Task: structure prediction
Amino acid sequence: MELRQLRHFMAVVTEGGFTAAARAELIAQSALSTSIRNLERELGADLFDRTGRRVVLTQAGRALLPQARALLAGAQAARDAVADVANLAAGRVSIGTIQTLTCVDLPGELAAFHRRFPGVQVSVRDAPVGELTEELRAGELDLAYLAPDARELPEGLTAYATWHEELVLITAPGHPLARAGRALLRDLAEEPFVDFRAGTGLETAVRRLAAHCRLERRITCDVTQIGLLVELVRAGIGVAFVPRRIGERAGLPCVRIRQPDPARTVVLAGRGPRPRNPAAAALLAHLTGAAPAAADPPGGRRPHEG
Result:
């Protein structure tokens, strides 16, 4: 049984005859009659009584009528649902982010995206880089902001945009380093550190920096929330490396480190050249500035697009 046959059946019922139904369906009457005969053969019963001047439904035809209506309505609902997703009237997109993301105002960007596409549901997840990477590869996330450990992303992932963030040392107010405003990395050998959890993009960048300069940090406390890390530094438990904007927003002294200049790379990544999910493709266009609703990233600098 084909939907086309059911549509022809309903046309005969609605129009009251084969000639009018064929005209309404824009097909030859012989083709419509053949379609109905094939449907009757498949169902094993006549659907119309053709002996009088007017076509009349048989008992089998009356039994089919509500089912045909329901099937055609269901098919139309399915087409409408798919069209809504394709046209961004509905749908869902999942995006992951590192907890210390500062190069993008993600809440502001998502709010702007929601105003443009109110029917699209957005799911946001923050997690360590390794978890976000695996969820991207498994298709559980459409997009993710990562601070990768390696220069190249794992096979199967694409970097759509890249940012470079300055890292600074934050200290408690009144700390001797705060008064100086800058320091060499080797000057930190005796400083106690508050560290972020292992496996995060920030912890990886700081650990790589320390290893490169042979700095053996003394970790006084390690945490899983950036807000707690900031408050522990404020309380004087230790110093910490963070993106500059985190330190500035916290109102803590931001000490610039020289030789080398600490930094990390953040990428917006996904699978393949372009997301297949229409909602994800629209969000990617928005976040990379291709959509009209997109705003410039903080500082007025567009990301480097990959």
Observations:
- The chain has three domains: 3-86, 92-157+274-305, 164-264.
